[in-house]
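User: Hey, my collaborator sent me this sequence without any context and asked if I could get a structure. I don't really work with proteins. Can you help?
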Amino acid sequence: MTNSIIPPFSLSLPRYVALANAIEDAISTGQLAPGQQLPTHRDLAASMGVTVGTITRGYGEAQKRGLINSTVGRGTFVTIDSQASRLPKIPKQDGNIIEMGSVTPLYSTDPPIQDGLKQLLEDAQVQQTLQYCDAVGHEHDRKSGAKWLELYGMHVTENAVIICAGAQHALTCILTALLHPGDSIAVEHLTYPGFKTLAGMLGMRLVPIAMNDEGMDPHALDAVCKKDTIRAIFVMPGHQNPTTSCMSQRRRNEIVRVAQKHDLLIIEDCAYDLSASSHFTPLAAIAPDQTVLIAGVSKYFGAGLRTSYLTACPELRNKLGRAVRNTIWMASPITARLASMFINDGSALSSLINKKEETRLRNKLAQEFLQDFEIDSLADGFFMWLKLPEPWTGSQLEMAARERNVSIFCADKFAVGSDPLPRAARISLTGPEDSNELQEGLTIIRELLSSPPMQQALL
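Assistant: No problem. I've predicted the 3D structure and written it out in structure-token form, which is a compact way to encode the shape of the chain:
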């Protein structure tokens, strides 16, 4: 095992960086497994012929990337969720793989781009979209953003809205503007992988918080805040990714009380909220002075528009506006205007309704095919959380499904920390092209789970 992480000699890279790269490569190729212990600093230094300080720096760099964890008295281990530190791949369109891992937004129900472009060309202000504008976006487009935010229960003026280049860019602006490298952010112990990789890239530490069927446990959050210095929390209260949990109004109030008690920034991601049948008051409406809320359009109309709306109090908005300026100067006015047109002419709402109708049918189909297994899902949800029978683990099912040309995401990809992983996997219902392909994928998953993984390996 030691040999697998000894990097080749290179004049182009410092040895500690080469060591971190070698650890990352060994994890990606399977030479290092999640939870595996690494050599001591002294032993590895002797094997590499370098100082202990070099190993300390190399392990430190690997820890920044979210690849390993070091604990005094126990040693250094590969993180349970190390696989999720790798960049996600866009599903191939070659037809060989049934995509039930990545959540795609049912492109066939998007508004016709031709209609939007025609409207854009007829707009008297179209030339304005080729010019520089304020970092937070044109007033007209921010008004449209405020209209879109009403669907989430947020009633704000255009002055409270910042236009970002998609939800991931909004998260980047929040972390860079309002937090610092080394800060600790509390997250549910199963959370959005894109937030994990972003926080790792920015040198921030994620602290896992226990969950139940309503998401983050406020008592567990309070207990962690008493022991650790937490600066912020990241939650998806309306439709949690990956577990599909939804916070009740009472749970939202409890989370806000803990956040106010410990002066925490609340990052509220509403990526899938419009898929939920029950809507409660957003955290940002309960605690507007310390909450930033993100509402994107990608899941409901036009993922390629890369447009999202961020809302926060005036003090935070000024910092967030500077972050937009410092990262991309401004979100594209052309795509922001297209998003505005779809929102204002009703196309966006029609697309949302059509997607909910299709996801409702797909959920019914999945419930029928997997009725013998425990599933957490929402009636109109884009994905479901499949709890596996023993002795199956999520990673075993992911690998077995891949061998049958079906892509799913095991719990490992969403996990934070070193607690035991649940036997579960997220199943995307919107990845398959149509109901026939979905049925084929569900049939394969059902067949795999009908016998233990060891027997599957012998087939």
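In plain terms: The radius of gyration is 23 Å. You can pass these tokens on to your collaborator as they are.
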